[in-house]
Design brief:
alpha/beta; Heterokaryon incompatibility domain-containing protein; 6 strands; six-stranded mixed β-sheet
Length: about 160
C-alpha cells in the first residue's frame, strides 16, 4: 500500500513541477473562506483563510451527503471546530480523504459540510457563488464516487486484472 502512495506522490510531484498549467491556480487571487487544517493524524480544525498570511494550497473533496446525519459546521459548534477535534468524529469517507491528504503530504482540505456554515443562509449564498473557484483552484479533487453516503467507504474494491 505504501508503494501505491509513493507512486501517487511521484505523479503529483511530476505534474506540479513539470506542468505549468498544473502548478498555477486558476484564480491566483482566490482563497476559500474556510479550510479544514489537518493538524496531525488524529486532529483537524476549521480555519478562516483570512486569518493565515499566505494563500494555502488545498485539496477539495466531493462526496454524496446521503441520509445519515454527520458532523457539520453550524453556528453553535463553529468555536469547537475551530479549536480542533478528533478525526474519528468524522464519517468514514471524510476520514479516508484526510488519510489520503496525509499520505500525499497535503495539510489542507476543503469539505463543503465543514467549510460552509450549514445553518446560515447568508454563508450558503456567499459560498455557493464561489464553488467553481473552490474546485478550480484546488491542487486536486478527491471524489468519493463509490460511496452513496458520507458514512460509507469511498474506496471501491476492484480486481486489478480487470482494470
Amino acid at each position: 500500500e505504501s508503494s501505491m502512495w509513493s507512486l501517487a506522490r511521484s505523479w503529483l510531484d511530476e505534474c506540479f513541477q513539470g506542468h505549468n498549467k498544473c502548478s498555477a491556480p486558476q484564480s491566483p487571487d482566490f482563497s476559500p473562506t474556510r479550510l479544514v487544517e489537518i493538524v496531525d493524524s488524529t486532529t483537524f480544525r476549521v480555519i478562516e483563510c483570512r486569518s493565515i498570511k499566505t494563500s494555502q494550497r488545498y485539496v477539495a473533496f466531493s462526496h454524496c451527503w446521503g441520509e445519515v446525519e454527520t458532523l457539520k459546521l453550524l453556528k453553535v459548534n463553529k468555536p469547537r471546530l475551530e479549536t480542533g477535534i478528533s478525526i474519528s468524529e468524522l464519517p468514514q469517507s471524510y476520514r479516508e480523504a484526510i488519510d489520503a491528504c496525509i499520505r500525499l503530504n497535503f495539510k489542507f482540505i476543503w469539505i463543503d459540510s465543514l467549510c460552509i456554515i450549514q445553518d446560515s443562509t447568508d454563508d450558503w449564498r456567499a459560498e455557493s457563488a464561489t464553488m467553481m473557484h473552490v474546485y478550480g483552484n484546488a491542487l486536486l479533487t478527491i471524489a468519493a464516487a463509490a460511496a452513496a453516503e458520507s458514512s460509507e467507504s469511498s474506496l471501491a474494491h476492484r480486481d486489478p486484472l480487470n482494470i
